[in-house]
Amino acid sequence: MTSAGFATRSAGSAKARVAVFVAQTLAIAEMEAHKLVRDPTELISRAVQPVLWLLVFGQVFAHTRAIPTGTLSYLAFMTPGVLAQGVSFTAIFYGIAVIWERDLGIVHKLLASPAARSSLVLGKALAASIRALPQVVIIYGLAALLGVRFTLRLDALLGVAGFVLLGSATFATLSLLVACVVKTRERFMGIGQILTMPLFFASNAIYPLAMMPAWLRAVARVNPLTYLVDGLRVTMIRGSELSQFGLGVDAVVMAFLLGLLVLVTARLYPGLAR
């Protein structure tokens, strides 16, 4: 076989492997998404927390004018942070469903399938991302009623959807990683509670980085939620076109972290069944 023929055959084989991986990932995501269709009340329960943050916390601090947000109103400044919080908090507790699946024997069946371990992890992360999209609609609608002005260009809306999908998938994969390590619902809930508050308050979700002391600002710069909020704030809010890090940096940081978490979790996922 000539070198050109070998290269062509290798390229075709690589494309086939990628196609199989994508098909396996989408099959897992579709299976997980069906659970949401069967239980639509979950969407209503997820709307409660953002409503409280915008109607109570946002309204109070908007009147105190204690937090400098430049030309933006405080409510407009915190709306992307509330969306990022809702997305990340929901995703971080996604892993408890995998522990339930282990107890019911579903994980064993998935591991016996020919699907790659990374496709199992990425498929579940993608399903968690799809579940986060209704929160975008809820927060857009509520914040618009409160007077927040959004950027409604198609590219901006696609950017918001992209960051929501990417952020939710990243934190859902982190959740799956925790589930693989702790393996019990009680320990998982404890670690989930420990993770959520530091992630939220050590970010730029409800106050700018400039207000933070130097040590907390350093923590915020390695906090993935900071980059998710930055990307959402620029793409969502009219008058907030200046990104603190750059939209490319925001997306690359989240994508890199997602890829790293998928690789690590895929190696640990078979151990969840034991």
Question: What can you tell me about this protein's structure?
Answer:
The chain has one domain (3-273). The model has no long low-confidence stretch (mean pLDDT 82). The chain has eleven helices and no strands. The protein has helices spanning 3-38, 41-64, 74-92, 95-104, 106-112, 117-145, 154-182, 185-201, 214-221, 224-236, 247-268. With 274 residues, the protein is mainly α.
Précis, in short:
The chain is mainly alpha-helical and 274 residues long. It has helices at 3-38, 41-64, 74-92, 95-104, 106-112, 117-145, 154-182, 185-201, 214-221, 224-236, 247-268.
List the helices and strands in order. Answer: HHHHHHHHHHH
How many strands, what sense, and barrel or not for the largest sheet? Answer: none
**pLDDT < 50 stretches:** none
Count the E strands: 0
Helix content: over 70%
| Tally of helical segments | 11
Shape annotation: globular
Q: How would you state the average pLDDT, rounded? A: 82
Q: Write down the domain tally.
A: 1
Distance between the termini: 46 Å
- In terms of DSSP E residues, the strand content is under 5%
> What radius of gyration results from the CA coordinates?
20 Å
Q: Would you tell me the structural class of the helices and strands?
A: mainly alpha
List the main descriptive attributes of the protein structure presented here:
78% helix; 11 helices; 274 residues; 0% strand; mainly alpha; globular
